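Supplementary Note 3. Input sequence used for the single-chain structure prediction.
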Amino acid sequence: MIQAAMRDELSAYLEKNPATENSVALKDLISLGGDLFARGPSLAHVTASAWILNEEGTHALLIEHAKYHKFCPPGGHVDQGETALEACLREVGEEVGLYLLKLLFAGIFDIDIHRIPASEKKNEPEHWHIDVRYAFRASKDEAVKLNLDECLSHKWQPIVELAKLEDQSVSRLALKTMRQIAPTTLSGLGYSPSQMETIRQAMDKPQGLIVIAGTSSSQPLSTIAALCGEAVQKYRVANPPENVGEVAEHFLAGSAMPPRDPSEKFREVVRLAMRSDPQFVMTGEVRDQESTDLVTSLVSSGHLVATSTHAASAIKAATRLRFLGVSPDDLANRDFLSALVYQVKLPQLCPHCAIGLDQFKEEAVDGHSVQLIDRIQCRVEPHLIDSLRFRNEKGCASCVRGTVGFTLAAEVISPDDVMRQCFLEGKDDEALKHYRAQGGQVAIEHAVEKALKGEVDLRDVEFMMGPFCTDPASTQD
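The predicted structure, written as discrete structure tokens, is reproduced below.
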């Protein structure tokens, strides 16, 4: 039964991932019909490893293997009567002492097929290891307890750094994580340290409204989910929602869940929140008079609230709220608007196959690309040009057409007294000018910063946000 189930699992993975490196060895192992886990004279057998993310999903655990002296995920051989997943969990317990793991995918996350040298001591010829990897999320309530007989050391390394490694057995795992597992922290989403600090200062207030603006494709719920994570830690919520990124209406530290009927979900959850007096409330999009009135009531009654809306900038989120019925007096109230956030979702470039400007020039055939090259040469300092990268449309084994997930370009504003007065008088353009005069960064500048680090393609920046400029004084919101 275990053997048949493993064969099915391996075959299903190969069907979804036909470009798996060294897959011929795996196909032969599946078709021969022998014991998949047998060691000794076997020319190939299945092992199991664990790709373990920290609770925030920003770092992965690697151990320094005592025998091979290289960093890799914890794991090992499958014992008689075990499934690969059971062996994986056992090995993790034995090697790093972690047991409070949450499985992120029902099946195999990755397969790495590599050669193992012959061993006279074990009477083993050179053979293939078919290493099946399962993805987990660790718990903050449990620390690594290293088994020094098997592991020399360990490290939690940032996913974005692992994605750049030449060792593709590890970098592929990181790149898959970036593509398939949504970040759960502000940092993982792409917010800068100063932006995160502004948001956290807003989260520290006992009441106020945090507005996440953008389009539905700009991932506002991902940011609200990250704020939920911040609130879970701050208020020590025992049982937060499992799929907060997919649930638009939910509140923390209350006693009731929203009803199943989508048409009633928003209204009922706010009513429940008002009755249970939670410390932090997150709602779905404010889009009409009713939802606006409910959110305004929550803030006015002393709650900290996060919501989303459609707007083309952080300042225009205030304009949108006014249009939806929030009074100028509320917008000018120091206890009402805590933070205005605007974000744009941009494809993140694959670090393995992204191309530089010289190759981009050779391949540029359309008019927009030619014009973009002219703008780069006119507007980008020569010493920064070498860091620019562009999407390789052909892609590689590590990505999908040159990209590996997404990152956010954002602007985060904490309104001051001058801006609140502008909101009172309906002078939103003046609020923007004041923000810019104080050195405030807008989203396209954040996007250009990422492009100059080789993280995103300037073509995507211009497609989503308009022509770029490296001079902050001339950048428009």
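Residues 2-180 form a domain with the Nucleoside Triphosphate Pyrophosphohydrolase fold (CATH 3.90.79.10). The chain is about 40% helix and 20% strand.
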